[in-house]
Amino acid sequence: MRQPLVAGNWKMNGSRESVSALLAEIKKGLHLAEKAEIVVCAPYLFLGELQWSLGQGVGRIGLGAQNVCDHAEEGAYTGEVSASMLKEYGCQYVIVGHSERRAMYGETDEMVASKFKIALETGLKPILCVGELLEERESGETENVVARQLDAVINVVGVDAWENSVIAYEPVWAIGTGKTATPEQAQEVHAFIRGRIAAQNSDIADKMRILYGGSMKGSNAPSLISMDDIDGGLIGGASLKASEFIDVCSAAD
Questions:
Q1: SS3 call for 103
Q2: Which residues pair with 160 in a beta bridge?
Q3: Beta carbons within 8 Å of 240's beta carbon, 6+ residues apart
Q4: Taking residues 149-160, what's their average pLDDT?
Q5: Packing angle, helices 142-157 and 183-198, rounded to 10
Q6: DSSP conformation letters of 19-46
Q7: At what angle do helices 16-28 and 242-252 cross, to 10 degrees?
Q8: How many separate domains does the chain show?
Q9: What CATH number did the domain enclosing 193 receive?
């Protein structure tokens, strides 16, 4: 049975004070969510402080980053952060290919695949984000888009890489809009993803965790996570409120 995973993506939010307070509140609520694996993906500047805080008595919360450089070695990449640096600061996970990175910063499928490969080789677990735009869904292109994004990574690292990786399906039209795919819509795409991996390795497909990443919150998490192929969530706005985030984690139990 797959252990549920709930990862909070704090995006570019917070201050040293607010992040510390948020983590403290999440820790207090952990008794309400005993089964799910919990991860917080914070802005780079807060990773060191969170690493220290997470090492103080509570080991259930993992640490993740929101992005990583697509070059493995140190060098003249001004403004970038390497996978080895993230590893040194206690990160276990890293988000790659988030729709905001693809849309706002021009990250191509090839660049995302390179980041995925480097993260994996460094000992980080990539959370690969895939998903379609509204116009792509309305034109019936959802499966083609998701397949292209998946295949770009598989072609570089092979299907066996999913044994130590996570996929997050995030319908772009449901991120930050207040809209959410229905449980049935989300399940349909999750099943497609698992089936595409299963066509190459059914054992890995059965074990692989696929998260839903489109405006999941406490109120809709139970119905979404109850679907057969939805193994948790990549949580954006709701992860900035401790009670809301804990509600999602509890639903994953």
A1: helix
A2: none
A3: 8, 10, 13, 14, 22
A4: 97
A5: 40
A6: HHHHHHHHHHTGGG--SSEEEEEE-GGG
A7: 40
A8: 1
A9: 3.20.20.70
Range of 180's domain? Answer: 5-252
Strands 125-130 and 93-96, by their bridges, are parallel
Which amino acid does the sequence have at 10? W
Reading the block at residue 43, the tokens are 């802005």
Burial of residue 249 (number of CB atoms within 10 Å: 0-12, 13-18, 19+): buried
Question: What DSSP character marks residue 253?
Answer: -
The residue to which tokens 């049935």 are assigned: 184
Q: What is the mean pLDDT of residues 161-179?
A: 88
Q: What's this model's pTM, rounded to 2 decimal places? A: 0.96
3-state helix, strand, coil in the chain (%, to 5): 50, 15, 35
Closest Cα partner for 247 from 211, 212, 214, 222? Answer: 222
Provide the Cα torsion 105, 210, 173, 42; round to 10°: -50
CA angle at 134 for the pair 128 and 140, rounded to the nearest 5°: 90
∠ CA 195-201-202, rounded to 5°: 60
pLDDT at 58: 52
Q: Give the catalytic positions in this structure.
A: 98, 170
Token couple for 179: 């809209």
